[in-house]
């Protein structure tokens, strides 16, 4: 499962770079609420991906030991997404709801893109 850890570390670096770009967009464009929403959604998306990484490592250890695992944390990740959207609704004057929801998907889109590039380069 160290391969997934390496993927996570690479993805984390990309997300932090994107978060820095969102901070620049928030500070220097006339659309601060859009970039704030993207940053919030991306931060929660990275948190969800971290939860998934931890659960997959736990799943790997359980399979190796021959025991069962209850779940991969889907409910926790779903609740995290709901929390991000709830924050966007609560602070609607500062956060754009649509960009928050889009930001939740950014880590997964990065993962998909990185895996496609990896497959093309190595096969």
UniProtKB/TrEMBL annotation:
Protein name, per record: ATP synthase subunit
GO cellular component: plasma membrane
Ranges that cross the membrane: 12-28, 34-52, 72-91, 97-117
Lineage top rank: taxon: Bacteria
Membrane topology term: Multi-pass membrane protein
Subcellular location: Cell membrane
InterPro entries registered for this protein in UniProt: ATP_synth_I, ATP_synth_I_Bacilli
Keywords: Cell membrane, Membrane, Transmembrane, Transmembrane helix
């Amino acid at each position: 499962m160290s391969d997934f850890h390496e993927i996570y570390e690479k993805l984390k670096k990309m997300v932090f770079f994107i978060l820095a770009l969102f901070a620049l967009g928030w500070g220097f464009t006339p659309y601060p609420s859009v970039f704030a929403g993207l940053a919030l959604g991306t931060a929660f998306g990275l948190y969800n991906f971290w939860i998934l990484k931890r659960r997959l490592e736990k799943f790997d250890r359980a399979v190796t030991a021959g025991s069962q695992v209850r779940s991969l944390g889907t409910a926790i990740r779903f609740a995290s997404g709901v929390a991000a959207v709830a924050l966007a609704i609560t602070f609607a004057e500062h956060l754009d709801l649509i960009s928050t929801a889009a930001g939740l998907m950014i880590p997964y889109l990065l993962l998909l893109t990185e895996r496609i590039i990896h497959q093309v380069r190595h096969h």
